[in-house]
Amino acid sequence: MATELKDFVRNNGSHSSNDDSPGVGPDQSGKAEQPLLESESTTSKSQSAGCIVSANLDDMEKKYAAFVRRDAYGIMGRGELPMVEKFLLGIAMVTLVPIRLVVGICILVMYYVICRFCTLFSAPNGEDEQEDYAHMTGWRRDVVVHCGRFLSRAMLFNFGFYWIEETRLYLSEDEQSEQTDEFKRAGVIISNHLSYLDILYHMSSSFPSFVAKRSVARLPLVGIISKCLGCVFVQRESKASDFKGVSGVVTERIQAAHLNIHAPMMLLFPEGTTTNGDYLLPFKTGAFLARVPVLPVILRYPYQRFSPAWDSISGLRHVILLLCQFINYIEVTRLPVYYPSDEEEGDPKLFASNVRKLMASEGNLILSDIGLPEKRIYHAALNGLFNQS
């Protein structure tokens, strides 16, 4: 599948660069040649090209359905909009967007100041090339956690998520009375991944640690916040030995959270990338190597116009359109803590597969066998098609 689409992108790219039809490319003198009237052959070529593009899009949407956007803004958020929608976007751009940007920056700076104050005269952990304040205790930790949860919810509110609908599922009535204990006994939160907004929700709900790129630790404002969260930093282009070290740190953090209710839980997105919210990709086994109970959480972002899912759309376009939408929605389903069987403890792949099937069943999600490599190919193909038009 991947090879076929790579060939398709390569072939279409070479075809577009060699296109000699009038009105498309420059002439030999370097000036653009534009006929007054299109010939019948030119018109038929354009119609044929449109049919080919449409057919190719249909084929790609079937192969890469987990990454296809189906909201009012079209593919990659670049679809043709009616005048009414353009008018509403224009109004939002000069009213909502500036207000939300200013408020968002104020919230970020406020939390940065809190984290900076709470880490004064406190040395971070520096084991295994990691630097964080995950195990900070006492009043400092309480302030960081409670302010972090409150301000994360405030940021979501600023983005238009005024209400969050949460549903908790339990296997029996007896387990409801053990809700708090079970939540603390889980070592890691397992969540499907739709957007960067997922992290804000989980910060507002349980304030866990998570895995982030090492470059995040050096970012202004965000760097100290990520260290207070206890992020495990990883270099994506790292060598296998470095990856093994990060995997070991994650496993230790999960086991510590399982044994110690005061240790921060880990949040992991085992799919490894974001989807449109209708599918569940194969799980990586890193979250299940610790062989401890996990807490599955399913997120959805219902929408009518713009989908908050970050699937096949640029980051900048996504942020702008999100800020332009007055109301956004999150639906959260918390499943019971999943305790692995003896067989699952000895087989992380089986453990991951069974948790994935449970989440797909309870969340009415479709299981898909594609992943990040296919998503990159799909994005490259979409860019190729758009560049031809």
List the SSEs and their pairings.
Elements: H1 2-17, H2 40-63, H3 83-94, H4 96-118, H5 138-158, E1 164-168, H6 173-176, H7 179-185, E2 188-191, H8 197-205, E3 209-213, H9 222-229, E4 232-234, H10 240-259, E5 266-268, E6 279-280, E7 294-300, H11 315-324, E8 330-334, H12 342-346, H13 348-363, E9 366-367, H14 372-388
Parallel strand pairs: 1-8, 2-5, 2-7, 3-4, 3-5, 6-9
Antiparallel strand pairs: 7-8
Helix pairs in contact: 1-14, 4-5, 4-9, 5-8
Task: For this entry, give a set of tags.
389 residues, alpha/beta, two-stranded parallel sheet, 14 helices, disordered N terminus
* Euclidean distance between termini CA atoms: 24 Å
* Class from helix and strand fractions: alpha/beta
Low-confidence stretches: 1-52
Q: What does the overall shape look like?
A: globular
- The count of helical stretches stands at 14
Which percent bin holds the helix content?
Answer: 40-55%
- Percent strand equals 5-15%
Indicate the radius of gyration in whole angstroms.
Answer: 24 Å
| Count of individual beta strands | 9
Mean pLDDT over the full residue set: 81
SSE series: HHHHHEHHEHEHEHEEEHEHHEH
Spatial arrangement of strands, main beta sheet? 1-8-7-2-5-3-4
Q: What characterizes the major β-sheet?
A: 7 strands, mixed
Give the quaternary arrangement of the chains: single chain
